[in-house]
Amino acid sequence: MNREEARLELDATTLRPQDASPEARAMAESDLELGAWLKKRTAFDEQVAEALAASIPAGLRESILQNAKRPAKRSFRWVLPMLAAAAAAVVVGWTMLWPVNSSMPGWQAESLAAVTKVEYGVSRVDHLSRDIEAIKRMLVADQSPTPVRLPGTVGTMPVLACKRIRVAGRPASIICFEIEPGTEAHLVVVDNTGLSDLPPQLQPQFRTSKNWNMASWSDGSQTFLLATTADEAALKKLFGLV
Amino acid sequence: MEFVLQFGFELPTTRTIHRRVTDLVPSFEQIVDAHYQGLYRFAMSMCRREATAQDLVQQTFLQWAKKGHSLRDGTKVKTWLFTTIYREWLAIARREKKYEEVEFEPEQHGATQHQDDGENPRVDSSTLQTALEELEPNYRAPLVLFYLKELSYRDIAETLGVPIGTVMSRLSRAKDSLRAILRRLEDSASSNIIPLSAS
Fold first, then answer.
1. Which residue of A has its CA nearest to B39?
2. For residues B144 and B10, what is the distance between their CA atoms, to the nearest angstrom?
3. What homologous superfamily does CATH list for A96-238?
4. N or C, fewer C-beta in 10 Å, chain A?
5. Which residues of chain B lie closer than 8 angstroms to A68, CB-CB?
6. What is the longest distance spanned by two Cα atoms in chain B?
7. What is the ipTM of this complex?
8. pLDDT of the residue at B125
9. Would the CB atoms of A72 and B66 count as touching at under 8 Å?
């Protein structure tokens, strides 16, 4: 440490001499001129420090403590944008998941829309039962169609629930099955009298839309749509095609 | 009845973690009591308006109430508060365009480096405030913090966000300048005295 460095350090610590390094302090003791300068400088600094002790406004302390206790004002500026963003996210999410498209026949689009709402909990089922016969009785009581006959092993899946809906202005039914553990398959039954764009008789047509796999067929005056988010193989297996 | 959990393996011996008292952050009220006066004096010297200085202090403690819990080291409370109030003041000064980084111009401030000959000028509170107002803010800030005796020069450097060497040289130059300004004010005051003539 040279004299100038010591001078700077001593000057920065006149009021807090404990902050000065032993080296700087030693120089102040050994260098008489530096020591005298430090003494005079310290006297001046002490005078200034004393003069700086300005009066404090009365009540400032109490005011600080009171303000800190007061609950902070909540800003609502961000609430609207947040709500808008959340709504936009829901719309975008729903659009991404919504499987219905314009290329589908009207009856199929309406059926799939109803099934999608049930799958995502937007629409509640009417009855819960593990007994297919009980489900049929409930649908009959609700004046909704029940399947006369089901192909392959469709009718052997464990049943879960049913719901009455309307498709093309007429009563229709949704019967929910468990196609795989934790995954549902929803069967829509609709009276096809007067409907167009129907699938062929007793010959399932398979189709995929978004994450949905569907099979549709007609059997006499009834037309069916079986839709599931399970994979295509699981669906085809029900018809003995895998 | 006493329940004893059997783990099937030996748990390590419990070891007490010793915390230093300085590691603990004091209560809000203790912090206010310890620092509100120093903060107010610093704010007052920087903005020169009582109402603004009070607002700055209030704002600083509100910031502490909101964010202070994140400070783990109780020894840093003071530096945190002074850093916050300085930044709050900087924001106001920049909005009002009263602050810009300027290099020291000794001639402008009447300072001559190392020229410490002569007696120390007289200092009183009002003359000191007038003299401080003549200093550029980036010299006034370390000088006021220095005279408040609250922070070491290292802490002042941290508070103002400048290197330690810069703080030391700014302090030295600002003190020289302050002495020169005070001397000038003293001379000007004595020349304005009209002697009473004996009748």
1. A56
2. 60
3. MucB/RseB, C-terminal domain (3.30.200.100)
4. C
5. 28, 32, 61-62, 65
6. 109
7. 0.75
8. 86
9. yes
